[in-house]
Input
Amino acid sequence: MNIAVQNVCFAYNSHPILQNVSLEVQKGQVVSIVGPNGAGKSTLLKCMARLLKPQGGTVYLNGKDIAGQKSRELAKAMGYVPQNIRDVFPFTVLETVLMGRKPHLTWDVGDEDFRVVTQVMKFLEIEELAERPLDQLSGGQKQKVFVARALAQQPEVFLFDEPTSNLDVRHQLEVFATIKQLAVTEGRTVIVVVHDLNLANRFSDTLVMLKQGAIYAAGKPEQVITEDNIREVYNVSVAIMESIYGNYVLPLEPLKESAG
Ligand SMILES: Nc1ncnc2c1ncn2[C@@H]1O[C@H](COP(=O)(O)OP(=O)(O)OP(=O)(O)O)[C@@H](O)[C@H]1O
Ligand SMILES: [Mg+2]
Output
């Protein structure tokens, strides 16, 4: 499935945030959205997940406006992992991951649902947490549970909002390797918001850099991750270093003058 955002404008209480944002993500592609705090990344993802209704523009799933689609169909097609998972109900880990199967359930949880959930929990190495209540987990453990819930949902399109922000370096790599695998091996479509420019650089096909609610740069990672773009958008100086593993970004210092 492909997902397209066309001229989306969004305002919270008539305070404009997104300004004419357009992007298209093809089946089998990983697109990372980067940008400073408050740039509108989460707002954009919520518009794509239909959790927010844009005042202008349209989001299309396989060419169909999502505004008119049935909730259950949308839930089957799109999996969304929110950024803020602090306020959780005291469900167990197993119950939470099983909730990912909800769009697929007919009457009750079936063998196939348990099979998928068990497989996903094993894969993300959280099976030993199965009976633990969610509100007693560490930030990183909780984050993995929400990634697991989205995987269990088996949607065509994944929307991840900073899925690795609480994870240690090993788990960050695991989650991004999983994201890449979803796209390459299973042909899923993945949109991921991430602050780590090196992870974005390494694991995405396309990078979208947001500045104050508008797309500042978009394209291949090496076209977007440049010293100039990063200075203009984040107001920091960086060095782009070449290595045998590809380029990487070394942040140097915050600049005093506003980048305008
Ligand atoms: N529910 C809300 N009501 C009013 N304003 C909001 C709401 N949610 C976000 N905003 C504002 O909209 C702007 C964009 O917020 P958003 O959460 O999309 O940013 P972000 O790019 O995801 O930032 P971060 O990197 O910190 O997660 C911010 O200025 C924020 O204060
Ligand atoms: Mg955010």
